[in-house]
Design brief:
The complex is a heterotrimer.
Chain A lengths: L4 E4 L3 H10 L3 E4 L5 H7 L9 E4 L9 E4 L2 E4 L5 H6 L1 H6 L1 H8 L4 H6 L2 H7 L7 H6 L3 E5 L4 E5 H4 E3 L2 E2 L6 E8 L5 E8 L10 E9 L5 E9 L9 H7 L9 H16 L5 H27 L1
Parallel strand pairs in A: 1-3, 2-3
Antiparallel strand pairs in A: 4-5, 5-10, 6-7, 6-10, 8-9, 11-12, 12-13
Chain B lengths: L14 H5 L15 E7 L5 E7 L1 H4 L4 E6 L7 E2 L6 E2 L5 E2 L5 E7 L2 H9 L2 E6 L6 H4 L15 E9 L2 H7 L2 E8 L12 E6 L6 E5 L4 H12 L6 E5 L11 H17 L3 E4 L2 H7 L6 E9 L5 E13 L5 H11 L8 E10 L13 H18 L4 H8 L20 H12 L1 H9 L6 E13 L9 E8 L5 E5 L8 H13 L6 E3 L18 H28 L6 E4 L2 E4 L4 E5 H11 L4 E7 L4 E3 L4 E3 L4 E13 L5 E11 L6 H20 L5 E2 L2 E2 L17 E7 L16 H4 L1 H13 L10 H6 L9 H4 L1
Parallel strand pairs in B: 1-14, 12-13, 16-17, 20-21, 29-32
Antiparallel strand pairs in B: 1-7, 2-6, 2-8, 3-7, 4-5, 9-17, 10-15, 11-12, 11-14, 15-16, 18-28, 19-20, 19-25, 22-23, 23-24, 26-27, 28-29, 30-31
Chain C lengths: L4 E8 L2 E8 L4 H8 L18 E4 L2 E4 L12 E3 L12 H8 L9 H14 L5 H7 L11 H13 L2
Parallel strand pairs in C: 1-5
Antiparallel strand pairs in C: 1-2, 3-4, 3-5
Classes of the chains: A alpha+beta, B alpha+beta, C alpha+beta.
């Protein structure tokens, strides 16, 4: 039986004290993943003796612009990612991805921090956040460290978060001029849909129409979201006027298989992932061409 | 004909309590001293039970009692064949078989206690494919039987072999359909209360068919029917699904309630519901059709195999409807149809909206499009050449001569509203880009009510109270479709009173007349006639009473607008209230027991010839889709649905049936499938078993066609199921036009649309996590 | 024994309540079992069906995925709180008038999602209505008449 003592905190300090003092503490924020796992008594759920509710810590609910970064508190809900002008204006890809999560009810409760820490292979925010080179700030009573999100993730449902650490901030560097982003998703229905496959694309197009600094991060394609360097390199240096999208499609499929090997779902995902990158590139190229005119 | 209450969009009589949260569903009931029951389900799809040890579980704090098969007076039940185990005795036959049930003071204690029950199993090899089950040397699922066959139905007409030699075009195709979950949003709930009033046990809950439930519980307890009382509550959807699974739950709760002498409540979690409750049958269907070059059908040979799962449940009747309707509404001189049901160790299958028709309509309507392609004809042309008309003879040899056969009309109306002809031509041209559009149609005929499956009669009580208010009690149960409203409209119409006078009682088996089950889209037709019959008897009593007193002819009196009039001079004689007062004074009895028995029908099991149903309904649905050929996603853009319902008692609730049926069909067509691998069910909640959301809804255009039927009340027939059976094939036909590729297996999921075949991870539930 | 009871104070349908709740007790359990507000329904327990939707501090939320211990100081509105002074909320009346109800099990959740939408956006488009209700499954109605009911209220607000 899952049984635990319920702890609640309204201050980061206090929460860190709890994490320091007690062992086997499970953190509860929006609850949209955790309470599902508790209901299902999911084998993924580690044994815990304490449930620490952090959902009422106001210090973790901010979205601010600090120098060249947007800093986001982990308790920011998906709903706020969709609505907040700072996010919509700077990282529309994040708003778009958040809009595809679950339903209104889920988006009103689920948080960006929860999406990151739960580290589901199908998490909709992870591909755009990785593509945006987001960093996570992990705080414990004794120390604080910053990791790139991509390094923070270590496997399906696995991260480098230590038992005494709390995710306290997500930092996303602002994109400079000339950057374009897109998010694509395939689901089995039009709402309440877990990604069958998704893909985040961030790239810079210079005044000559050449791609630079391309970042390609698919979700539900690999055991956990990660960038696809081979695909990225194959896009970099190409021009929006003569890039061979079919070729990029083949490259992304191959790169996926090189990571996962041939699995039961590969026959579907190979052509589908090619479609997603082609569509993302097409959309960005169209946008870039419009901007040029 | 002019009506005052029927044929009108009267508001639902049960809407107020439902929009305020006051309506009590099974799980909302609490009784003093109530215990919570929880069942332990099998660990394997097929295993021998060596030993069950409940000792540890019994010591868990709060546990009051634990029952196993040993405690069940009669452990087998079933509506048609009594071979379903209330709790597994020697063997578990499917993954949802119950082994023991705990009653405890809290839900948590019950849930924890079942984990402490130790069961020693010997895992046995299982059969998970009905074709394997059909093999001669296949191990027996039910050892007391000779083989694994549940049933075999036939239809034989003409000489099929000879007819095929004369056919100019012959097509042979195989189609399959999947296990489907009813997905009522309310999980099953039952409360058994011992020794309440004069009953041994009273059962409350989400019960689709109170009388089948009573039969099962009384049989299991080995007590007379009058000792068991079933009271239906508001029910959160059923679609055929809250029958046997509820009977079994009610029987378990009843045994526990009597053992503990306390009320016992059992409410399934969604996972338990999907694991335990029966599904729609998956079918494998082999169709062979022969036609002339001009597109006239000459012969059809059909073999359908249904997976019955562990128990017989409704398989004998489900496959019977399939055998009757398998050719579709097409004139055929020669037909040979065989439908079979086989036991397997899969989850058992039973009634679900459509009842053996969604499968065969998918096959037959896909086949018609394939044949049209072969003949270089449009799907519309081929259908129009072959559909039934008045006086057509069906595959079972029945002449359709007692009602309007309106296929041509429903097709014409659907074709017009969907712009089918223009769009069909447009979408046949080559389309640029990944997204391709298509339009597809499906038509059907459907026998109304139970047919020759079973005796078909229903009763109702209409009782006028001292103050002129009216109570109706019928044995048919509101399933959410609007039955209470429709029956109240009929009584109000007959008695010429405002519907506000009427209160429709929940079914109480100790009061309501036994009326068979609320199934087979039969309620309006059968129950409506029974209500009408009762109301007419009262009307006669009232008019005779007044005729006697005022020395007028009773035949001259009419009841309308809350008054009684002399129809010769349109003069008001007295108000309805005054008439009730008069009856009170004179001691005239103003209640009546109405009864309606369906017209005679017949069936010869050997030849499959007869009059299987006394009347039929006809429908045509047309789907327009856009397929993303690079991802496999299907968007259903528009659905047009034309249905002949005889007469719409309530046109707005009827439209609600059409909208709901279409969305359920959309799920059946493109996303729903209970994934079962070696008997294990992989998707046990709504995060993995996907049903359509509001975002998946296309534009829906309902078209109500009215050709009053001589047998129906005011001419009304059926609507619930016909709306469901056409959507999937119409969508499949539209997808085939859009992509140029025919998919013969439901559902048309992403993988099938993109690759042409499905993908499966295989393994058990645990492998997926 | 690690399970503790938490004392929590919050507002339900305008009334402040102080309750002792278990560490695993969900808002859904508290409403249905401690407060006998059984209009809020349990359909899936994993936030997929929407039958348990209530309005928490102005937003539609799944009460099956919230522990009551989390909501101290908050304000909850349930289906029982929609009818004010014996008068139905316009949405409730519209659900009756437009036949947006069949079995009625999803109805309370649907109404709460619709109410939350209209609180923030009194004149939603059809597409906005569909988005607001995407987390509420209905197996009976096919959704059409539910949309029509909400549209009628949105129109009358103008």
């Amino acid at each position: 039986m899952i049984s635990y003592e319920f702890l609640t905190s309204k201050k980061i300090e206090e929460a860190l004290d709890y994490l320091d003092k007690f062992s086997k503490v499970q953190i509860l924020a929006g609850g949209t993943d955790l309470l599902v796992n508790i209901h299902k008594e999911s084998p993924r759920l580690p044994h815990f003796d304490y449930l620490l509710d952090i959902s009422n810590i106001p210090e973790l609910k901010f979205i601010t612009l600090v120098k060249n970064f947007i800093e986001i508190g982990p308790l920011v809900t998906h709903f706020r990612l969709i609505e907040e002008p700072l996010i919509k204006g700077n990282f529309p890809i994040l708003s778009t991805a958040a809009q595809t999560i679950g339903s209104v009810q889920i988006r009103n409760r689920g948080t960006i921090g929860g999406n990151i820490v739960n580290a589901s292979p199908a998490a909709d925010l992870l591909p755009p956040l990785i593509a945006l080179k987001a960093e996570v700030v992990l705080t414990s009573k004794k120390s604080e460290r910053i990791l790139s999100l991509e390094k923070f993730l270590t496997g399906p449902y696995k991260t480098k978060l230590q038992a005494d650490e709390l995710l306290t901030k997500i930092k996303i560097p602002l994109l400079g001029d000339g950057y374009y982003t897109d998010f694509q998703k395939i689901g089995r229905r039009k709402a309440l849909s877990i990604a069958r496959l998704n893909l985040a694309l961030v790239t810079k197009i210079d005044e000559k129409g050449v791609f630079h600094d391309t970042r390609v991060v698919p979700g539900s394609a690999t055991p956990y979201p990660q960038s696809f360097p081979v695909t990225e390199e194959s896009v970099n240096g190409k021009s929006i006027f003569n890039i061979d999208l079919e070729e990029i499609g083949e490259i992304v499929s191959k790169e996926m298989v090189s990571i996962t090997g041939e699995r039961w779902s590969t026959p579907y995902k190979k052509p589908a992932i090619a479609t997603l990158i082609k569509r993302a590139l097409e959309k960005i190229i169209k946008e870039a061409k419009t901007n040029e005119n | 004909m002019k009506f005052s209450e029927v044929n009108k969009p009267v508001k639902r009589v049960d809407a107020y309590e439902k929009v305020t949260g006051k309506a009590k569903f099974g799980a909302d009931l609490f009784f003093p001293n109530m215990l919570y029951g929880k069942a332990l389900h099998s660990k394997y799809p097929h295993a021998q039970i060596i030993k069950i040890n409940t000792e540890k579980a019994l010591t868990y704090p709060g546990v009051k009692a634990i029952i196993t098969a040993e405690d069940i007076p009669n452990n087998k039940f079933g509506v048609i064949i009594q071979n379903q185990q209330v709790l597994a005795q020697e063997e578990v036959l499917y993954i949802g078989d119950g082994i023991a049930v705990v009653a405890a003071e809290t839900k948590e204690a019950a849930s924890e206690a079942i984990k402490l029950i130790e069961v020693e199993y010997k895992e046995l090899p299982g059969i998970f494919d009905p074709e394997e089950a059909a093999k001669k040397d296949a191990p027996l699922i039910h050892s007391e039987l000779e083989d694994n066959q549940v049933v075999h139905h036939r239809v034989r007409k003409g000489d099929v072999e000879k007819a095929f030699t004369q056919a100019e075009v012959i097509l042979e195709r195989e189609y399959t359909t999947q296990f489907v979950e009813h997905s009522y949003i309310e999980p099953e709930a039952i409360i058994a209360v011992p020794y309440e009033h004069n009953s041994l046990v009273t059962i409350y809950g989400s019960i689709q068919n109170p009388f089948s439930c009573r039969n099962a519980v009384a049989n299991v307890l080995k007590v007379p029917l009058n000792k068991v009382r079933i009271i239906q509550n508001h029910m959160g959807g059923s679609f055929g699904g809250k029958d046997e699974v509820i009977s079994s739950m009610a029987a378990r709760a009843a045994v526990l309630a009597l053992k503990t002498n306390q009320p016992v409540k059992m409410v399934n979690t969604r996972e338990e519901s999907i694991l335990e409750s029966y599904k729609r049958h998956p079918y494998k269907m082999k169709y062979k059709v022969g036609a002339t070059k001009e597109g006239k059908l000459v012969a059809m040979e059909i073999k359908c195999i249904a997976d019955s799962g562990a128990y017989a449940c409704q398989t004998p009747f489900v496959t019977w409807r399939s055998v009757v309707q398998a050719t579709g509404p097409y004139e055929l001189p020669s037909v040979k149809t065989d439908t079979y049901g086989y036991y397997t160790n899969n989850i058992y299958t039973g009634a679900m909206r459509g009842y053996g028709s969604p499968q065969i309509v998918f096959a037959q309507e896909s086949l018609m499009d394939e044949l049209a392609d072969e003949l270089k004809m449009t799907p519309l042309e081929l259908r129009l050449k072959n559909i039934y008309h008045n006086n057509s003879i069906t595959a079972s040899g029945q002449k359709l001569d007692n009602h309007q056969v309106s296929l041509e009309e429903v097709i014409a109306k659907a074709v017009k509203a969907s712009n089918y002809i223009e769009k069909y031509i447009e979408y046949n041209k080559s389309q640029l880009g990944d997204k391709k559009r298509g339009i597809g149609m499906a038509v059907s005929f459907r026998g109304c009510s139970l047919g020759a499956e079973a005796t078909d009669a229903a009763g109702a009580i209409v009782a006028i109270q001292r103050d002129g208010s009216i109570l109706i009690s019928s044995g048919l149960a509101e399933n959410g479709e609007g039955l209470k409203t429709v029956f109240s409209q009929i009584a109000a119409e007959e008695l010429g009173v405002d519907i506000k006078r009427i209160n429709y009682m929940e079914v109480d088996t100790s009061v309501s007349p036994e009326s068979g089950a609320t199934v087979a889209s039969r309620s309006t037709l059968l129950g409506g006639n029974a209500v009408k019959n009762a109301a007419q008897q009262i009307k006669r009593t009232i008019t005779e009473m007044i005729a006697d007193k005022f020395k007028v002819k009773s035949g001259d009196l009419v009841l309308r607008n809350e008054n009684i009039y002399n129809k010769n001079n349109n003069q008001k004689i007295m108000s309805f209230d005054d008439a009730v007062d008069l009856a009170n004074k004179l001691g005239v009895f103003l209640s009546a027991y109405g009864w309606y028995k369906a017209p005679d029908i017949s069936w010869d099991e050997e030849t499959g010839q007869g009059r299987p149903y006394f009347t039929y309904v006809y429908g045509c649905q047309i789907a327009e889709v856009e397929v993303d050929t690079a991802t496999g996603q299907i968007e259903v853009l528009k659905m047009v649905a034309a249905h002949d319902v005889g007469r719409a008692i309530n046109p707005v609730t009827l439209k609600g049936q059409i909208y709901g049926g279409i969305m359920m069909a959309l799920g059946y067509g493109i996303m729903e499938e209970v994934e079962i691998a070696s008997g294990y069910i992989k998707n046990t909640n709504f995060d993995e078993y996907l049903i359509p959301t509001i975002k998946d809804m296309p534009e829906i255009i309902p078209i109500i066609v009215e050709n009053p039927d001589p047998h129906g009340p005011y001419g009304a027939k059926s609507i619930g199921e016909p709306t469901l059976e056409l959507g999937a094939p119409a969508i499949a036909n539209a997808v085939a036009q859009a992509t140029g590729r025919r998919i013969r297996h439901l559902p048309l999921n992403l993988e099938r649309v993109l690759l042409g075949h499905s993908l499966s991870k295989g393994g058990t539930k645990n492998d997926i996590l | 024994m690690k399970i503790n009871k938490i004392t929590v104070t919050f507002i339900v349908n305008g009334q402040e309540v102080t309750l002792k709740v278990g560490s695993k007790e969900r808002l859904l359990d508290t409403l249905r079992e401690q407060l006998q507000l059984t209009g809020t329904k349990e359909g899936c327990s994993v936030g997929e069906c929407g039958a348990c939707t209530v309005i928490l501090d102005g937003k539609a939320v799944p009460s099956c995925l919230i522990l009551t211990g989390q909501i101290g100081g908050s304000e909850v509105l349930t289906i029982e709180g929609l009818e004010a002074d014996g008068k139905l909320d316009p949405l409730q009346q519209a659900f009756i008038d437009y036949h947006a109800v069949q079995c009625g099990f999803c109805t309370p959740g649907m109404l709460m999602s619709a109410k939350a939408l209209l609180i923030h956006n009194p004149h939603p488009s059809r597409e906005e209505i569909r988005t607001a209700l995407e987390g509420n499954l209905c197996r009976c109605t096919g959704y059409e008449q539910i949309i029509e009911a909400i549209e009628s209220v949105a129109k009358n607000c103008q």
